[in-house]
Amino acid sequence: MSKVWVVAHRGASFWEPENSLAALEAAIRLGASHVEVDVRRCRDSLLAFHDPTVDRTTDGRGSLAQLSLEEVKKLYLGVGQRVPTLEEALEAMRGRINPVIEVKEPGTEGEILRLVEELGLLDQALFVSFHHSALLNLKRLNPKASTGIIVRGEILTPVEAARRARAEWILPDHRHTTSQLVSKAKAEGLKVAAWVVNDRAEADRLLKLGVDALASDRPEILTERPLHRPLRAYIGGPIQGLEEDQAYREVLAEVLRKAGFEPVDPWLREQAYYRGVAGKAEAYRLVRRDLLDLEYCELLVAYMPRLSAGLAMEIYHAKLKGKKVYLVSPLEDLSPWLLAHTDQTFKTIEELEAFLGNI
Hints:
By secondary structure, the protein is of the alpha/beta class.
């Protein structure tokens, strides 16, 4: 394993928002040797960002290319993270972990290369892309740049495609990484990096084939390092009409800290909206921020003194994402729907505290 690169895909993106500085830091703590970042351009800057739109991973909507850097920096990725520029990401990596840089947009490769050269990271960096022509152009700009073609599916001639691009690496989808492909690549002096592997048994299969690198959202399954942070617990509860009755959140947060969890409480940043300071146009972004926070928590602790459609939505989303849900509610005869979407129910916070103390 020591000779095989462990590449944290978009950082340790199972645990932290993808391509964020937190995901990069988690990759380092989890023992990855490399971190992969995607590169796209907004109107005036190169960013560590995957999609052409901001809808999936932020609280915004629309095309990334139409936003200024100032507008991008206002977007929220979840658990306090913002979109980093490529320069910010590379600066955070320098001297700590090696970069694998995916060129998402042909035409940006020259600017990406110049930044890497200016930061003195050329010898540590690997440039990869589905756009093989962009990699060929990188080689023309600087023959010392290390490059790798990404291939999806079972293309007939991956080795020949790598040669045409003057690349040193082939990055196949792990599902199509075969002994024949690895053997042929090795015979031609090429290296193979399989992506994205989040299962240890599949990783073992690929290691036996002799791959040179594995990309994973969860580098700890390869490095066997302990988790880089405490498990997070999202605190959910009805707010509208109860704006002056949110003291239970501090009590829950303290109970969770004592049990070893890191509490995440959206109320701490939502008060302006619910107290009428922020405009109603913020409603979409508020809901998105809540769901993005919940995405990177392992537990939802829901306090329900009365029925709440918003809280029911959070419970449903949490279970959809495979999170544990603990519900604290004094209500009698909770609906079968709620019971079906919770792992444990408690009448009081004291009951929850006792339960957490025994696990």
